[in-house]
Amino acid sequence: MPMMATLVLPARALLLDMDGTLVNSDAVVERIWRRWSERHGLDGDEVMQVVHGRQGHASMAVLLPDRPMKQNLADNERMLAEETADMDGVVEVPGAAAFLASLAGLPHALVTSADVALSTARMAAAGLPLPAVRITAESVGASKPDPEGFLKGAAELGVAPADCVVFEDSGAGIAAGRAAGMRVVGVGPRAGAHGPDVAVRDLTEVRVEGVGGGLIRVHVG
Prior knowledge:
Distance between the termini: 13 Å
Oligomer: single chain
Strand content: 15-25%
Number of strands: 11
């Protein structure tokens, strides 16, 4: 839904996607996936509508439904290596550094479809600190839009799902947050079309404050 002038979301923990939410990695994602599209004779624009937010092998399963998962997993390993080696154009989403700094001492976790190596490299390339609690591709058995990652993040922080606010940019990620029973702040140009509770242009439009007693207020607008 469109962003209201001001909105305050109460929470006890924040769960943060990485790509498109904290880190703008669109340039490298486009390069890698459009090359993959050409190799498989697929339309690059259609492929780009699918891949954001999902683990690579899950995107491949959607795009090449008849291909054995073993091939998707092997292909995904190669692509992860390519992505981890390519940081050209990877930058922070506006406001991400200040946003993360404001979370010091407050319960929060990174919940990303990237693996440990890729998430570590991209956060470093964008000049951002890694949250202490991280749910990566290795942590889950199912990719977004499955809610497993967000539910694991909440469990690690010891917070009920209903008390968590998710920050996401993609359709798959927003669907995962909602399936987990969480409220979702959509970040960036892709988010608004996928039904988040509220949408922002970037993280400069978000302010977070701890108010004691384990409570957090997320100010949007």
